[in-house]
Amino acid sequence: MNLRYLFDSKEMILGLLVLILMSGCTPKLDFGDIDFEPQIVVEGWIEDNGRANVLLTQWLPLYSEGKDVPAMDIPIKWAKVTLSDGEREEILVGRVDRDYLTSFVYTSSVIKGECGKKYYLKVEYSGKTVTAETYIPDPVKIEDFKVEKCKDSLYSITATFKDDPNQDNYYKFFSKVKSVNKRFLPSFMSTITDKSSDDNDMISLEVNRGLKIEKTNVKYTPYYKLEDTVTVKLAQLPKEIFDFWSDYENEIMNGKNPLFPSTTNLKSNIKGGKGIWAGYARDEKIIIIKEHVR
């Protein structure tokens, strides 16, 4: 998932303005009442026994008739990003990574995620500071899965896991197809809560192919090919992260553009900015499709 947006004609004008500003010139242009105040957008996560990963962009909104419209999403490469687990602090190191649309990610090397712990994030950039906190709940195991032919030469994966009926739990699936994706992508329409189950401690859900948000001419399908090797990841997550992903999926289903959802109205746990700082407790299964076809 990456928080990128389509441009309209006014936004292209803004893009030209930004390029001029970056070149050191001061243009004498009149854009009326348009407000160019930028906001920091955070896309960050930490998993149990995993390092923190943080993507940063500077989001420049255009205000028109009381509504803000996404205009430009500029990667931030010179921020100070501090991670704390309540006992230790670490300044994250930025590096180039072409697997992400921002091509740049900040990662931790000392602090790793632990179940049951809270993690605090602070981003300082261009005189602005945004903060967030999250925690990592306990992991839930994938108990079983099945592969079924669904249409033509495509196949679906359904995973089953055991839920604790004595507490409210929130889940999301991610998937990664070997040779196609180098990283996990959010499985399309796979954010659920046990409140929606039928009072059954076993929950089954179809794990759709991950949806990669970017400009592409490839038609999206939620299914897998016979030759695919798929890694399915089940994550238990805090409620505020569940709320974000639920809004995100609803935006895709009901929004104006299914591949470029706006994050303007999505719930966020970022104070002073936009986006998400998420803690995930994970379990993974590698599924070779052709080995499970009957």
State which percent range the strand residues make up. Answer: over 45%
Order of helices and strands: HEEEEEEEEEEEEEEEEHE
End-to-end Cα distance:
33 Å
Question: How many individual domains?
Answer: 2
Describe the overall structure.
With 294 residues, the chain is mainly β. Helices cover 10% and strands 46% of the residues. It has helices at 9-22, 239-254; strands at residues 39-47, 51-64, 67-75, 80-84, 89-91, 93-96, 104-112, 118-125, 128-135, 142-151, 154-162, 170-177, 185-193, 202-206, 224-225, 229-236, 274-288. The strands form three sheets. Strands 1, 2, 3, 6, 7, 12, 13, 16 and 17 form a nine-stranded mixed sheet that branches. A four-stranded antiparallel sheet has the order 5-4-8-9, with no helix packed on it. Strands 10, 11, 14 and 15 form a four-stranded antiparallel sheet that branches. A hairpin with a 2-residue loop joins strand 10 (142-151) and strand 11 (154-162). The radius of gyration is 20 Å and the shape is globular. The two termini are 33 Å apart. 32% of the residues are buried. The model is unreliable at 1-32, 63-71 and 256-261 (pLDDT under 50).
Q: What is the secondary structure topology, with strand pairs?
A:
Blueprint (H helix, E strand, L loop, with lengths): L8 H14 L16 E9 L3 E14 L2 E9 L4 E5 L4 E3 L1 E4 L7 E9 L5 E8 L2 E8 L6 E10 L2 E9 L7 E8 L7 E9 L8 E5 L17 E2 L3 E8 L2 H16 L19 E15 L6
Parallel strand pairs: 1-17
Antiparallel strand pairs: 1-2, 2-3, 2-7, 4-5, 4-8, 6-7, 8-9, 10-11, 11-14, 11-15, 12-13, 12-16, 16-17
